[in-house]
Prior knowledge:
Blueprint: H1 2-19, E1 30-38, E2 41-44, E3 48-52, E4 56-63, E5 67-71, E6 76-80, E7 85-91, E8 96-102, E9 108-115
The structure holds copper (II) ion (CU).
Amino acid sequence: MKRGFGTALLAAGLLASSACGQDHTAVTSDQRHLFVVVEGDKVTGPDRIEARTGDSVQIVVTSDVADELHLHGYDRTAALVAGRPSTLALVTDVPGVFEVELHQSGMELTRLRVRR
Ligand SMILES: [Cu+2]
């Protein structure tokens, strides 16, 4: 049961990675980044998100266990419900490098780098 679920998550993650655009250096853009987390470990998703101020960024996380997503600096959180995608959406208005972590597992999911 659990294993089957993990495989489904993996398949979703593979689809997700191909849907995630590579060129984030152009003018302001809408970005959507998909992450899959299994038992507190990241299975898919970029280690770094590059954005410019004014970008709309969506961080979409599907975890097989409940957790809390936290974007440091911007201090935004999103509750992760087991087995369902949760979205943290923001407009990047502050430049810098910001950690995105999961509070229960303590895992650093990615880093958001925002340039002017
Ligand atoms: Cu935190």
